[in-house]
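Weekly structure sync, notes
Attendees: PL (lead), two postdocs, one rotation student
Agenda item 3: pending single-chain targets
PL asked that the sequence for the first pending target be pasted directly into the notes so everyone works from the same version. It is reproduced below exactly as submitted, 153 residues in total.
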Amino acid sequence: MKILMVCLGNICRSPMAEGIMRHLVEEKGLDWEIDSAGTGGWHIGEAPDPRAIATAKKHGIDISRLQARKFTYRDFGNFDHIFAMDSTNYADIIALSESEQERDKVQLFLEAADPNHPTKNVTDPWFEDRLFEPVFQEIREACGKLLEKLAGN
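Predicted structure, written out during the meeting:
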């Protein structure tokens, strides 16, 4: 299984989601590929935001070596599931798709994890330091639910 997590700049939400999901997949002994990307290209080649790195590290997950990259059309062919962190990213991804098969791979992250989740968008913590911990917790909970669904448990 190949999973791609996508946010805007690929320095906060999607690298945390990549790190968390990788950690959970490794704990289960699954041979899955997890990656992340951004719909914008401002941070290509950069490490995640230091606040995202610190928050993940506090929970035993190292995302410091990840590098931001931009989502490309090729990602539709390279991944089984593409999870957008918010509706704007979802729309940007869908705009690049050329078929129903490609669009079927794309889902809002929180909605895919729990169709009854009270919100559809993962808050972008970039603007407020205090948001990194609650966003990490929300992503961790959603990753756990997604893993259960996708692994068939």
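Discussion points:
- The mean pLDDT is 97.
- The chain has seven helices and four strands.
Action: rotation student to compare against the earlier draft before next sync.
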